[in-house]
Write a structure and sequence with these properties.
The protein contains eight helices and ten strands. It has about 260 residues and is α/β, with parallel strands linked by helices. The protein has one domain: Acetylglutamate kinase-like (Carbamate kinase), CATH 3.40.1160.10.
Length: about 260
């Protein structure tokens, strides 16, 4: 008599802790979606003067593109991280607290875009995205990945490695988008922070692996995202643009190589 508890499958006898794996080609769920991140400190914290023109431009483009908008945390998240660190909170608690700020920013963006189809979504609403796009909505979410208390321990310090840049990138990768666009207040990637170093040079295009090897003192996106790009199946490019310059968002949505592009080499 056969053992009915055995379910035939390629991994039935695997411990899942070996180096064995499958070369797979994941489906692209929504490959035409343009995933955008509105920077927290770089854009949201600047208030009306920065946000209104960007959203006006986005509304002008919404009928040409499927757009998913995600929000960063910004200065308030940094303040929370500082306070929680002083109180000796573990990394998972910092991740949980920092997520509230990005959530607040996403809710504000939703209110501003409500009359244009802006709809706020939680992680549990992810599978509803195809319906929202079909209805012409602009789904808006927090960029913070929902690891929360289960955030991985950091190699140095206790600041979560997976913050809003990581959450935005992982969303684009799952959806099958080929590129994710980060809307910030700089023209892209530089050899150092241009706000602090006036001699920093702009880098228009570079591979993620080369950028990791350069180990620059400051990079425009979370370093963990660069690691993920080197292993990407779908989202093989990061594009960083200056949202304070009119027209940059429209050009990026159209596929123009404005700003800086970090790609899978």
């Amino acid at each position: 008599m056969s053992d009915r508890r055995v379910i035939p499958s390629a991994l039935a006898a695997s411990t899942l802790t070996t180096s064995e794996g499958f070369d797979y080609k994941p489906i692209a769920i929504e490959p035409d979606v343009k995933v955008l991140k509105i920077g927290g400190q770089s854009m949201m914290d600047r208030g009306r003067s920065a946000i209104y023109p960007v959203l006006d431009e986005l509304v002008q483009c919404k009928d040409k593109h499927k757009i998913m908008l995600m929000a960063g945390g910004g200065t308030r998240a940094r303040h929370v991280y500082s306070m929680a660190s002083e109180l000796e909170m573990p990394t998972g608690v910092l991740a949980k607290l920092g997520g509230y700020v990005a959530m607040q920013n996403a809710r504000m963006l939703q209110m501003l875009l409500a009359k244009h189809g802006g709809i706020y979504i939680l992680p549990d609403d992810f599978e509803k995205l195809p319906l929202y796009f079909r209805l012409g909505c602009i789904p808006i979410a927090s960029g913070m990945p929902p690891f929360e208390y289960w955030e991985k321990p950091s190699a140095l310090g206790r600041i979560p490695r997976h913050r809003t840049d990581a959450g935005v990138y992982l969303t684009a990768e799952v959806l099958g988008a080929s590129r994710v666009i980060f809307v910030k207040d700089e023209d892209g990637l530089y050899t150092d922070d241009p706000k602090k170093d006036p001699n920093a040079k702009h880098i228009p295009r570079i591979s993620a692996q080369e950028l990791i090897e350069k180990d620059l003192p400051d990079v425009v996106v979370e370093r963990v995202v660069l690691e993920y790009v080197t292993r990407a199946k779908h989202c093989k490019e990061l594009q960083i643009i200056n949202g304070l310059k009119p027209g940059m968002l429209t050009r990026a949505l159209a596929g123009e190589p404005v700003g800086s592009i970090i790609y899978k080499g």
